[in-house]
Structures are given as C-alpha cells and as structure tokens.
Amino acid sequence: MDPAAVPDQRSRAAAELLECAGPQLRRVARRASICADDADDAIQRALVLLLTKAPAIEGGRLAAWMTVVTRREALAVRRARDTGIDPGALDATPSDFPGPAERAERAEQVAEARLALAALKPGERLAIVLQAQGYSYAEICALCGWSYTKVNRLLAEGRASLRARGGSG
User: Fold this and answer.
1) Contact indicator for 118, 129 with CB cutoff of 8 Å
2) Are 169 and 115 in contact (CB under 8 A)?
3) Residue 16 Cα distances to 3, 10, 58, 132, angstroms
4) Long-range contacts of 7-12 (CB under 8 A, 24+ apart)
5) Cα end-to-end distance, the chain, whole Å
6) Which of 114, 132, 126, 121 is nearest to 151 (CA)?
7) In angstroms, rounded to a whole number, what is the distance separating the alpha carbons of residues 76 and 38?
8) For residue 135, is it left (φ>0), alpha (ψ between -120 and 50) or beta?
9) Separation CA 50–CA 54 (nearest Å)
10) d(CA 105, CA 94)
11) How far is residue 158's CA from residue 39's CA, in Å, rounded to a whole number?
C-alpha cells in the first residue's frame, strides 16, 4: 500500500464517520464536558487522533473506537479545566518536572499500587483497571460479557480489598 494514500483514507474515513456518528460523538462529549465549547474541543482533539493515530479498523469498530477516544478526550479537557489549566496550552517547562525525590516517591507509590492490584482476584483487577481507563459499567459489561450486577460486585469487592490493603500498609 502506498504510504501517501494513508492520510487520504483516514480523511475519508473521518468524514464518513462524522456524517453518520457525529451526533452520537457530540452527545458523548457533551455528557463528559462542562460546557458545549469543551465538548467541541474534545471532539476536535479526538478527530486529530483519528487522523494521525487511528488503528486500521473498519466501519462500526471505528465508530466504537472513536466514541471511546472522544469520551477520554472530553474527560481530559474537563480535568484540565478543573485544575485551572488551559486545555490548549499544556506547555511544560523544566521547572514543571518533578525532582529526584518526587520521582522516587512516585515510583514507590506505583510499586505499591502494582502489588495491591496483583493481590486482587483476576475479575476484580480487570473491572478496576477498565473503570480506571474510563470505561463505564455498561461498557465493562459489554467488553467482558458480565452482567451489571457482577461488574458492580467486582468493583465493590475490589475497592474494599484495596482500601483494606492500603489501611494495613
């Protein structure tokens, strides 16, 4: 395949996707955003990802991928807005980076979290990781083939185990 043809294919796929799934993407972005402008920013960021980094998938799966990306981008814009950061100006200067002590503390926290997650039952771990990645209960149900009740139970038991482990350590 000609590498020069890839941007044209992505552009066509993006145009077709927006034509058929545009209203759904707008609803997804609006649900996770503070305002309509933030939703538009999230959709724009998701489109940039679609045009530059989208995997080679077809039709309906591409719409599902774009829905997840749009939701995550909306949440990222919201987090940036909540922390007072302009979502368009995520400039990092050398003084913004943590020093060696902060990096060591963060590495220790990550190691503790990794051990705590490893101690969970596989279903609890999977449910918690998927929710941490931004998936809703319904999306976890669909991905794993579980009922809503099972997802709710796995998340509750997993959180309880994590809290108990955190309190004893």
Assistant:
1) no
2) no
3) 21, 10, 12, 31
4) 7/51, 10/50, 10/51, 10/52, 10/54, 11/51
5) 55
6) 126
7) 10
8) beta
9) 5
10) 19
11) 32
- The reported pLDDT for the residue numbered 92 is 46
Which residue's entry shows tokens 């996707």? 17
Structure tokens at 86: 């302009």
Distance of alpha carbon 132 from alpha carbon 31, whole angstroms: 18
Q: How far apart are CA 101 and CA 72, in angstroms?
A: 31
Q: Please tell me the pTM assigned to this model.
A: 0.45
pLDDT tens-digit map of 56-102? 776 667 778 888 888 998 888 888 877 766 655 544 445 556 778 88
Residue 36 identity (one-letter amino acid) = A
Element housing 79 (H / E): helix 59-82
Residue 132, token pair as written in the block: 């941490």
Instruction: Point out the residues of the chain with pLDDT beneath 50.
Output: 1-4, 90-93, 168-169
Amino acid found at 97: F
